[in-house]
Amino acid sequence: MESGPQHGYFVTFEGLDGSGKTTQIRRLAAWLASRGIETVVTRQPGGTPTGDKIRALLLDSKSAGLAPRTELAMMFADRAQAIQEVIGPALAEGKFVLCDRFTDSTEAYQGGGRELGSEPVLALHRIICGGLQPDLTILLLPDLAASLARARHRNSREVAKSGPDEGRFEAEQDSFFGRVYEKFKEIAAREPLRVVAIEGNLDADEVYTEVIRIVVDRLKLSNRGVE
Q1: Which residue(s) pair with 75 in the sheet?
Q2: Are 135 and 217 in contact (CB under 8 A)?
Q3: Does residue 225 lie in a domain region?
Q4: CATH number of the structural domain spanning residue 196
Q5: What are the backbone angles phi and psi of residue 176, rounded to the nearest 5°?
Q6: Which candidate among 1, 11, 20, 165 keeps its CA 20 to 30 Å from the CA of 184?
């Protein structure tokens, strides 16, 4: 069986909450593992002890009054720790890294949704992340209204089970998410060599088929048991 890539691959999944990212990351990780490719799965915000504390502050609906620039700075503090502790070491060891959100989400949510613009986000990315970019970004863009309905329902269900309250962003107005959605589309148009969008209200199996096709095509995995 072939070993994993020697330089590592960094694959990110982007999209609104409720777009199905978590399901597709889990399925892709299993697909890679079945081909003997060592994979690290992480998320942002979170994924490290420090990052999980930042996540709790950022996503808790009780964290009222966070200024947009405070929110932006916290996102990059989390990202810096994740690169140092998880992403960087895994890539150096030649592993696949699958990350639920990266700087594209910050550009979409804080740059677009909070109307801070793309430039401060991209400037911080250059400074904090050293310009680290994913090898591939898969952007899930189902219907906006359907994504929001799923995300809000999921958060209500988790709170009802005494789980963590991560509904701070879901409480925003639809106009906020409209700006986020459009910014994601702008990023995809700007960076077509890195970002591949899967649009429309496909079911999970249809999306998965597209994800595998994209990964095989873009990362040249056709000799890893895919016939």
Answers
A1: none
A2: no
A3: no
A4: 3.40.50.300
A5: -60, -50
A6: 165
Q: What pLDDT digit, counting tens, does each position of 62-111 carry? A: 877 899 999 999 999 999 999 999 999 999 999 999 999 999 999 999 99
* Amino acid (1-letter code) at residue 182: E
Range of the domain at 102: 9-219
Annotate 158-190 with b (16+ C-beta within 10 A) or e (fewer): eeeeeeebbbbbbebeeebbebbbebbbebbee
Task: pLDDT band for 197, please (50, 70, 90 cuts).
Answer: very high
For residue 35, the SS3 value is coil
Structure tokens at 225: 């048991």
What DSSP string runs through 177-202? HHHHHHHHHHHHHH-TTTEEEEES--
Specify the pTM: 0.88
**Residue 227 falls within a domain, yes or no?**
no
Is residue 226 in some structural domain? no
Total domains, the chain: 1
Structure tokens, 138: 């898969």
SS3 34: coil
Helix (H) or strand (E) holding 124: helix 118-128
Backbone angles phi, psi at 178, to 5 degrees: -60, -40
Residue 224 lies in a domain: no
Q: What is the pLDDT of residues 2-22, one digit of tens each?
A: 344 447 999 999 999 889 999
Output 126 or 161, whichever has higher pLDDT: 126
